Amino acid sequence: MAVENSTFPASVIPDPQAIGDPLYSYLEQRGLTIVRASQHFRAVNANASDEIAQQMSIAPNNALLLITRVDYTADQCAIELTDTYCLSDY
């Protein structure tokens, strides 16, 4: 099981209701093709105050893998931040 959260600046997606499927086609239509990404992996614990444990139906403080990805356009502008939380058996 995994929980993924993506964040975009409001200037990139001024009207979220205008996005159709798929998201990346919408970005390309706006001239924002993603050409590069960087990813970082680290081990974390699901905190008791964090809703991640609740969303994944796991006990607080269970070990998780956190994958953080930043996507960039051709002009090296970061336009997407994605955090993906995965169970250790994922």
What are the main properties of this structure?
14% helix, mainly beta, four-stranded antiparallel beta sheet, 90 residues, elongated, Chorismate lyase, 4 strands
CATH class: Alpha Beta
Categorize the overall geometry.
Answer: elongated
Q: Over the alpha carbons, how many angstroms does the gyration radius reach? A: 15 Å
Strand residue content: 35-45%
User: What is the CATH architecture descriptor?
Assistant: 3-Layer(aba) Sandwich
Major beta sheet, strand line-up: 1-4-3-2
Task: Tell me, rounded to a whole number, the average pLDDT.
Answer: 90
Number of domains: 1
By DSSP (H or I, 4+ residues per run), the number of helices equals 2
This entry's quaternary arrangement is single chain
CATH topology: Chorismate lyase
**Helix share, percent:** 10-25%
Question: Largest beta sheet, briefly?
Answer: 4 strands, antiparallel
CATH superfamily: Chorismate lyase-like
DSSP strand tally: 4
